[in-house]
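Pipeline run #58 for the internal structure catalog. This entry was flagged by the ingest filter as a single-chain record with no existing model, so it goes straight to prediction. Upstream metadata was stripped on purpose; only the residue string is passed forward. Reviewer on rotation: M.T. Logging verbosity set to normal.
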Amino acid sequence: MPGSRVAFLGGLLDWHGPSKPTNESISGSAFIEQGIMHIRAITNSGGSILGYRDFSLDSLGPWTFIYGNKIQCGFRFIRPWQITDNKRFTSLSWCGYEVIQTMANQYFVDHLTKGGDPPSWLSRH
């Protein structure tokens, strides 16, 4: 993967709470978005890496994506892409530094607290 020193497969969890997330507090949460991110997606938003959680404990993992002419589970090659895959999978996207912050604001602030329609990107997966 290009930029593997500073890029990673990240995601937005359907979780919020009164304090910083912990291994225990995010237990049972689901991803609502995943994409390739730069470490600056965390550092530019004032965030930090707080720890580690093995998401397999929650039966979570990377989604299956279209990436170019192949199907991947996260970064792991599954098989070549077929035209029918367009209806089954979303494309693996690179998220700019502030994209995940914008998605979090749209989901948690605009949608959940104000009762508006869910963000259009939410139905992609």
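catalog note: The mean pLDDT is 86.
catalog note: The longest helix spans residues 99-113.
status: ready for reviewer M.T.
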